[in-house]
Amino acid sequence: MIYFGQKKMTKKQAIQLFQERKVRTIWDDQEEKWYFSIVDVVSVLTDSDYQTARKYWKVLKGRLSKEGNETVTNCHQLKLRAADGKMRLTDVADTEQLFRPNKT
Fold first, then answer.
1. Residue 98 resides in a domain
2. Dihedral sign from CA coordinates of 21, 93, 76, 27
3. Computed over its alpha carbons, how large is the radius of gyration of the chain?
4. How many domains does the chain have?
5. Residue 38 above 60 pLDDT?
6. By residue range, what is the domain housing residue 53?
7. How far apart are the first and last CA of the chain?
8. In this structure, are residues 58 and 64 in contact, taking their beta carbons and an 8 Å threshold?
């Protein structure tokens, strides 16, 4: 069990804060690692809103895919809670993928 503020949260899903911005995460029990929403990370890094970050990731993902980039090829989609409360498939990356985006 982890704690988010005063609220208990399961290890399965949590919201991490980075510079006071939300980044959705999910824990994979089989691989024993955290996955982070790529769009949320892009939003934090570019200091942009969700829609702008989403468009940025879509264009970048297309370009990287054309180049044969392994990060995009190995990109997982997992269900994370969206702003409307629904569980939606979201591109996610683990810490290794996030810190080595130029690997081809």
1. no
2. negative
3. 14
4. 1
5. yes
6. 2-89
7. 37
8. no
